[in-house]
Design brief:
Helix content is about 5%, strand content about 45%. The longest helix is centred in the first third of the chain and has 18 residues, at about 1-20.
């Protein structure tokens, strides 16, 4: 009760402290859509975050902010096929949980390529990149590596989630947190590893998936903080500390320092699955935590993936407290941070709409499947032209596919397509895509010599598709529109850009949810062209990609 009372007093003082200052409202999520596993670093007045991308390419977007509210993508860590690709991997494989750090003029990003390269580190002198080729860390066996630099000793350490002791788990999800000293100049481990945590905060309670570890220094304490409980509804953040970098680490008696799992499941507009946090001092001198969470529209159904949220953090006797579990994470926090908008940045939080043109190339936020084939597309004032490739989105290759994230529960994507199919296997159009077997494809094609628009739905966990609807169209203008409203999807076309015909409505949106598909990713809207296994010299041009999203909780 003393801790709870102290938190209430600090919250009150935090509010009073900004009452007479400039107010900036942080709107959650501060990065909407599929930006999971956030890691953040502060360098001077600048903040940089990095996020998981799994089997999308380019990988690991670097986001920049000066106010923790307005974010702009400035680069991608993995932006060259020579660094790595994810061919043959399912969409929820690839790159897991990066971490970003900075020391003596160099940016370090650590990450896990879950199926091939294992843990690795890349470096850059510019946060936007280019980043080096990956340096493998074979001794670091596990996931979620992060580097801590101890400025007082000029030493570095790499901490990570690893297997149970002797690789003999006592229960499902039994993991450890282990650490090596790290030679940051030569990018390799030093000496032997040491186990810092076994199982979690209290192994007698059989805690699962102690992961995403970070170390920081506060006063004389080394704070070790980690996610616990798995990345779904039981997700949480816990903290331990020690006077020695090697431990022993003592858990905070008030753990978890962040969770939403104990709150009523029927609360309105819930934010759930909160965890995988990192702590940062804000521009106003107050502390904050960024973390992943989700916005389900029903139970544990959500299509937008795991997003980046923020909440105030208070220090109680050198222990970190975010939302202690008694309170719901809020959609808005008032701060006295001075707002700094960035020129040319796409909107990332709240409700918004914009139209992407392709006369200046592809925006940094756009993604391909597994690698990039620069010969398969071109950009110009006429739009984005995709060559038809034999590969399809049901397979594990690299089809002609360019995607942007779905960032709202209620969202619409639209494009104007210029395409003359030559065979029934040639199809091009707009996709709303969760993974290889969970998507809808709104396509222009040909049947019996006549041009038509077709709507396909993938078959759950199979490579097959089923035809939902078809509609004859002419060879002139064609606008395709897909709308996702939570558990419902709607598909429409227009041949004049004004009057839309419904091809199908109220289709199953849960088919696109992470809960149904499994895995760790969110939906994207994509421009896509395929010849379905045949060679083709045909191409399709997309004049623009228009996106709009409006969720009532974000107003």
């Amino acid at each position: 009760m003393k801790i709870k009372a102290f938190i209430l007093v600090l919250t009150y003082l935090f509010t009073i402290g900004i009452s007479n200052a400039q107010k900036t409202t942080l709107v959650n999520p501060i990065l909407t859509g599929f930006y999971p596993d956030p890691s953040i670093v502060k360098v001077g007045e600048d903040y940089y975050s990095v996020h998981s991308t799994f089997s999308y390419f380019p990988g690991l977007p670097i986001m920049h902010s000066r106010d923790l509210k307005n974010w702009k993508q400035i680069g991608n860590v993995i932006n060259r096929p020579s660094q790595m690709d994810f061919m043959g991997e399912r969409m929820s494989r690839g790159l897991f949980a990066p971490a970003i750090a900075y020391y003596k003029g160099i940016y370090y990003v650590t990450c896990t390529d879950i199926d091939h390269d294992g843990n690795f580190v890349v470096t850059a002198t510019n946060p936007a990149g280019p980043y080096s080729d990956p340096v493998k860390l074979p001794q670091v066996r596990g996931i979620d590596p992060s580097i801590y630099f101890d400025e007082a000793t000029d030493k570095a350490y790499i901490v990570y989630n690893s297997e149970a002791p002797d690789n003999k788990p006592l229960y499902s999800g039994h993991r450890t947190v282990q650490m090596y000293e790290f030679d940051y100049k030569n990018l390799k481990t030093i000496g032997d590893k040491k186990q810092l945590i076994n199982g979690g905060v209290d192994i007698t309670k059989k805690p699962v998936w102690i992961e995403g570890p970070h170390v920081m220094k506060r006063n004389d304490w080394y704070i070790l903080y980690c996610a616990e409980g798995g990345t779904s509804v039981n997700h949480s953040q816990v903290a331990l500390r020690s006077k020695d970098i090697w431990g022993p680490y003592v858990p905070f008696e008030g753990n978890p320092v962040l969770t939403q799992r104990e709150l009523p499941t029927d609360r309105p507009n819930p934010i759930t699955s909160a965890g995988h946090a990192q702590f940062i001092e804000g521009p106003d001198g107050n502390w904050y935590s960024i973390f992943l969470a989700v916005r389900p529209y029903e139970g544990d159904y959500y299509n937008t993936g795991r997003e980046m949220f923020i909440a105030p953090l208070t220090w109680v006797n050198d222990w970190p407290i975010i939302e202690h579990g008694e309170k719901a994470i809020e959609y808005k926090y008032e701060t006295n941070i001075k707002e700094v908008k960035q020129k040319g940045a796409l909107p990332q939080s709240g409700n918004f709409s914009y139209t992407m043109k392709f006369d200046k190339g592809l925006d940094l936020s756009l993604m391909h499947l597994r690698t990039v084939d620069s010969s398969s597309f071109k950009t110009s004032k006429n739009g984005l032209t995709l060559k038809l490739k034999p590969e399809t989105i049901s397979e594990l290759g690299n089809p002609s596919f360019v995607a942007k994230r779905q960032q709202h529960t209620n969202s619409t994507a639209e494009t104007e397509l210029v395409f003359s199919p030559k065979s029934e296997k040639e199809k091009a159009g707009l996709v709303i895509y969760q993974d290889e077997s969970h998507y809808y494809f709104l396509a222009k094609s040909i049947k019996d010599g006549k041009t038509q628009v077709e709507l396909y739905k993938s078959v759950h966990r199979k490579k097959d598709v089923e035809l939902i609807s078809r509609l004859p169209v002419g060879n002139g203008k064609l606008v395709l529109r897909i709308t996702n409203n939570a558990d419902k999807c709607h598909f429409a076309i227009s041949e004049n850009g004004k009057d839309f015909k419904i091809l199908a409505e109220n289709q199953d949106g849960k088919h696109l949810s992470t809960r149904v598909s499994g895995g760790f990713i969110g939906n994207v809207f994509a421009m896509y062209a395929t010849s379905n296994g045949e060679k083709s010299d045909n191409s399709a041009t997309f004049k623009y990609l228009k996106y709009s999203g409006e969720d009532s909780v974000l107003k």
